[in-house]
Amino acid sequence: MEQTVVVSSPREAELAKLVENTFRHVNIALVNELAMFAHDLGIDVWEAIRAAATKPFGFMQFSPGPGVGGHCLPIDPSYLSWRVERALGKSFRFVELADDINSHMPDYVVHRLMMAFNSRGAPIKGTRILLLGLAYKKNTGDARESPAVRVAQLLAAMGAQVRAADPHVVEATAIYGSVTRVDLTREEVTSADAVVLLTDHDGFDLDDIARHSRFFFDCRHRASGANVEALLACVSSASPGPGRTT
Asked: Class assignment of domain 10-102?
């Protein structure tokens, strides 16, 4: 039900918006950092989060991923931190830490991809990588501050042949020309050395894509299979790692 909540002044109203966005930003950073540690410790963080979510009070479920985007989470908490610093001369340490963790998640994605290729004696340079999703949120065309943009730019800078499919993002400038935009076809999937799921749009048939991929790197914990490696899941020796184009 829609409801108008009355507060005493525009200052409290604006802070309420900043509190909500900062709350999400900080908690996403918490699960992202926890998930990275859990991966190294060989613990299934998703199972742990699901178990924690069964508690009927005192816990709100947040999911790890490749980073945050949009016009709110990467912007509003930073504005609040800037305002506190400017007005009071003090740092907002929670926000600064959350910014650092979330902004470096795309770098972590690329690092994990590099390690996956290295484990099979293959460099990133010259490989063909297909990115699934450029938007920051599923089923939208909004690529503002999207972690996928940073991932694409980093991979391209390392010499990868980066291609990307997103049926919702229409702006050609959203990725600054660093990747080739393609339609998602079976040929694109099978020709890629690695398929990377960054945005889990409902229009993606992920089971079929994963099944026909040489190597499927899942940043959203949506697929399974012998050729699938999850960004934030426990270490497993089951994944065969990426193949190479001949």
From this structure: alpha beta
